């Protein structure tokens, strides 16, 4: 991993405002690091290739919406998998249908940049579903709320976020 890591709270300029505000509530805050990256390389495949991060270390936070109720949730999965939106997520939300949230809605509701959305700092009424494979990752790389940086933290810390539920079969 070729990232210039710093303690997350020591580099507030590398964090979206909702992430900065929520970080003090994260369990084991001392294990949370942040690194600047080229914002043009924020998308998973390009980022992993440029910064020598494996897909197994990279986690994605996907915003979904259940319909017709309009219930939003975050799903955290490894980059080697894809979220089971119409199966597991739909059942978890208790809705007839689920889909990926439109980009403009995910950005406006989260207060984060597209391509940098993270489960840290999302609206408190949004459930956070974490695929059961994520907690086992020693150093998971995920968005910081901005395209210009990434957060690195143990997968177990993601699983312990307020509002998080670890789910078997969230991703396939």
Automatic annotation (TrEMBL):
Coiled coil: none annotated. Residues 39-153 form the YbaK/aminoacyl-tRNA synthetase-associated domain. Signal peptide: none annotated. This is YbaK/EbsC family protein. Pfam families: tRNA_edit. InterPro entries: YbaK/aa-tRNA-synt-asso_dom_sf (IPR036754), YbaK/aa-tRNA-synth-assoc-dom (IPR007214).
């Amino acid at each position: 991993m070729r990232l210039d890591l710093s303690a997350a709270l020591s580099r507030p300029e590398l964090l979206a405002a909702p992430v900065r505000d929520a970080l003090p509530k994260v369990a084991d805050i001392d294990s949370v690091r942040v690194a600047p990256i080229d914002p043009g390389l924020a998308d998973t495949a390009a980022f992993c290739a440029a910064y020598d991060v494996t897909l197994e270390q990279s986690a994605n936070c996907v915003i979904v919406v259940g319909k017709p109720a309009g219930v939003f949730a975050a799903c955290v999965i490894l980059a080697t998998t894809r979220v089971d939106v119409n199966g597991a997520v739909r059942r978890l939300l208790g809705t007839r249908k689920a889909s990926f949230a439109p980009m403009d809605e995910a950005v406006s509701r989260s207060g984060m940049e597209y391509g940098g959305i993270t489960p840290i700092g999302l609206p408190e009424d949004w459930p956070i579903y974490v695929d059961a494979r994520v907690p086992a990752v020693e150093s998971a790389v995920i968005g910081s709320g901005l395209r210009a940086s990434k957060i690195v933290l143990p997968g177990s810390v993601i699983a312990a976020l307020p509002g998080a539920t670890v789910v078997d079969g969230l991703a396939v």
